[in-house]
Amino acid sequence: MATCKVTFTLDQATVTRLEEAALRLTRPKSQVVREAILEYYERIGRLSERERLSLLGAFDSLVPRIPARDASEVEREIRSVRRSRRLGGRRSS
User: Fold this and answer.
1) Do the domain assignments include residue 20?
2) pLDDT digits over 28-66, tens only?
3) Domain that holds residue 70
C-alpha cells in the first residue's frame, strides 16, 4: 500500500490518547490513526450506542402508552373518520 505524508493539527489531549493507544497496542501511531479512521468510516450512517439506547428508551416508554383496543373498535373508528372526510369535514353555518 502506497503511503503519503500528511499534517494534522491536534489538541494535546488527542495526541496523548494517540500515544497511549500506540503504546498499549504496540503499534505505530500512523497505524492506530489508519485503523481509527477506517473504523469511523465504516460507522458512517449507523447509530452510535448512545443514539441506539436513546431510541430504545423512547420506544420502551411509548409502547406502554398505546391503548389496547379491540381490532373491531379500531376499524369502526377508521370508518367513522373516512366517512366524515368524504362528507367534507367541518361546515360553517
Assistant:
1) yes
2) 999 999 999 999 999 898 998 999 999 999 999 999 888
3) 12-86
